[in-house]
Amino acid sequence: MTATPTATPIVQLRGIDKSFGPVQVLHDVSFDIRLGEVTALVGDNGAGKSTLVKCIGGIHPIDGGEYLFENEPVHVHSPRDAAALGVEIVYQDLALCDNLDIVQNMFLGREKRRGLVLDDATMEELAAKTLDGLSVRTVKSIRQQVSSLSGGQRQTVAIAKAVLWNSKVVILDEPTAALGVAQTAHVLELVRRLADNGIAVVLISHNMNDVFAVSDRIAALYLGRMAAQVKASDVTYSQVIELITAGRSGDLGLATANGVTL
After folding, report:
1. pLDDT tens across 73-95, in order?
2. What are the residues whose beta carbons fall under 8 Å from the beta carbon of 250, sequence distance 6 or more?
3. What does DSSP assign to residue 254?
4. Which secondary-structure segment (H or E) carries 73?
5. Are residues 17 and 24 in contact, defined by beta-carbon separation less than 8 angstroms?
6. What does the alpha-carbon distance between residue 32 and residue 201 come to, in Å, rounded to a whole number?
7. 95 contacts 154 by C-beta, under 8 angstroms
8. C-alpha to C-alpha distance for 115 and 226, rounded to whole angstroms
9. Pick the CATH number of 11-261 from 3.40.50.11720, 3.40.50.300, 2.60.40.10, 3.40.50.1010
10. In whole angstroms, what is the distance from residue 170 CA to residue 204 CA?
11. Which pTM was predicted?
12. How far is it, in rounded angstroms, from Cα 143 to Cα 202?
């Protein structure tokens, strides 16, 4: 069943500034993330995508602006704080251990115990339930070692690990970057399924075909500023490229002064 997107964003960033020493990376950035939607975060290298995501995930403290979660101001100082809210990030390196199996990876650092021993039965049950809930059919056994999995299967395990903890927001950093055509299609189906299950998904991608295949909204960063955040159905491929490369496309995007994008 497809979830109905909520009117009020679950995450609202307002006027976010972030500097590293004398270099200001984010300038007055506003960004909304909604339950039941895939929001594509796009921008050229150095636009500030990774910094913005790390601010959301508690890795970088924000210098200025407001972070609202479920309409309440919050202070997120660490990934633990973000996880407590229900925010999980799946980075490009996936952070999986090749020498462990799927269940062990999904519960790594959050193992279930019964007294002093690991509760393997409960962890297996929860892992299987999570994968089933995402309609994952490509994994033969949840006790397979991760070293034996394909790139697409590894991405699937990393996404399942992120949603295992009743996450409300899942941020995916270039999830199809190293995948072939068939594996990319499978991962994009999974991304869409997350949103249809009511999760707020942020998809960071350079691939415009992927962006338009699954996204409800597109947020384009340009040199650390939010050029535009629009419904995917309201813009064209070429408009998004212009927002990424110039910060503006026609009447859409950042203001200009004397022909220079601000």
Report:
1. 999 999 999 999 999 999 887 78
2. 239
3. S
4. strand 72-73
5. yes
6. 11
7. no
8. 50
9. 3.40.50.300
10. 11
11. 0.89
12. 29
